[in-house]
Design goal:
The chain has two helices and 19 strands. Helix content is 7%, strand content 36%.
Length: 236
């Protein structure tokens, strides 16, 4: 597998200019796949505009001033994905990575208190030795529990960086969800019902807004109101 990536081949979700130069930083393998993450270099230089070039990015990372989900990050290729929290210690500002209506990654400034937690979706789970249940989350985390009390598709609000579970949000009727794929990315919708499909077809989630999508595009964010600050919707 190549360690290099041309700008023309970069995922559209990055939103980088295509003809500025030939190459762009390729994220390292990690918690998020390449199409679902942005390398730290682009986040700092192009999105936050903290630096003008790669040399400055590497220098700033070397000062241990940048954290992701409460952990200091020094790798300029570190992959940052959906719901990750990026914190600049010197300024005290924190940002959450979200998707906009064009399926492009955007950072939104969050309050210091909100930066102490994040939402993670349960992708699958399994029983491990000792009878414990391992939850595999969308950002590559694993949480071990004594009881099998959550379902695949549910979203957990966890404390950073301890991973302590603060709240659970069920994938159920009446819940608020943020769409992270399909024809309506970035939209906040209310779950109406579920449509189970036979065979290999994916199950559908129907919304009160009058359309449906597959379950993997649905990310629950709250009961009556969102647990997090969302991107501001443009009036254009």
């Amino acid at each position: 597998m190549s360690k290099h990536l041309k700008r023309l081949d970069a995922p559209r979700s990055w939103g980088v200019s295509r003809k500025v130069s030939s190459w762009v930083t390729k994220p390292r393998p990690g918690a998020h796949p390449i199409e679902a993450s942005v390398p730290m270099m682009i986040v700092m230089r192009d999105m936050l505009e903290l630096c003008d070039n790669s040399r400055e990015v590497k220098y700033l990372l070397g000062t241990r001033e940048i954290m992701v989900d409460g952990r200091v990050i020094t790798d300029h290729k570190f992959p940052i994905g959906f719901m990750d929290i990026v914190t600049v210690k010197k300024t005290g500002e924190s940002y959450r990575m979200l998707l906009d209506a064009h399926s492009k990654f955007k950072l939104t400034l969050v309050a210091p208190e909100e930066a102490k937690s994040k939402l993670v979706r349960i992708e699958d789970k399994k029983t491990v030795s000792g009878g414990k249940v391992q939850l595999n989350l969308h950002d590559g985390r694993n949480i071990l529990l004594d009881n099998n009390q959550y379902s695949t598709g549910d979203v957990l609000k966890i404390e950073l960086p301890t991973q302590k579970i603060l709240k659970s949000l069920q994938l159920a009727e009446g819940k608020l969800a943020l769409l992270i794929g399909g024809s309506h990315p970035g939209e906040l919708v209310t779950i109406k019902s579920f449509e189970m499909k036979r065979g290999s077809a994916q199950n559908l989630v129907l919304f009160k807004e009058g359309f449906a999508t597959v379950r993997e595009h649905v990310f629950v964010v709250g009961d009556k109101s969102p647990e997090i600050k969302l991107l501001e919707v443009s009036a254009v």
